[in-house]
């Protein structure tokens, strides 16, 4: 069952590659509970089929980088990019996209959280396995306040420019 506006995001674990060790975060992949990440925060997240894929690299991530200041001006605490990739891939892709300090690149390597959201996409026939649908959500204190799910192959409603209307 797909989550909807008004639902709490499901519990799950997302993994982020940490470039610089800090108190509580070791260098390398770190696991984070979604409930702890969203508690008391306003998160604008977007999910996509995979790192390094054409639309994701050329349009989706860049749209959020270009709109970063406008998004932050609307009171968003964090911007997340979630994909069914491991933390190493998400970290490398984030470095190449220049997202440092702006977008958290969170991996859902086994698609567990994506499946709990009800937003998985089976691309096995294209040799890509189970991935995430392309979508964006506004999450406030763990509750979904806006959710825009793309039609297959589309990139319209989940862009940063489109999501700004929900802020």
Automatic annotation (TrEMBL):
Belongs to the peroxiredoxin family. Prx5 subfamily. InterPro entries: PRX5-like, Redoxin, Thioredoxin-like_sf, Thioredoxin_domain. This is Glutathione-dependent peroxiredoxin. Keywords: Antioxidant, Oxidoreductase, Peroxidase, Redox-active center. Residues 3-167 form the Thioredoxin domain. It catalyses: a hydroperoxide + 2 glutathione = an alcohol + glutathione disulfide + H2O. Thiol-specific peroxidase that catalyzes the reduction of hydrogen peroxide and organic hydroperoxides to water and alcohols, respectively. Plays a role in cell protection against oxidative stress by detoxifying peroxides. It holds the Pfam family Redoxin. Its EC number is 1.11.1.27. It comes from Orrella daihaiensis. SUPFAM superfamilies: Thioredoxin-like (SSF52833). The keyword tRNA-binding does not apply.
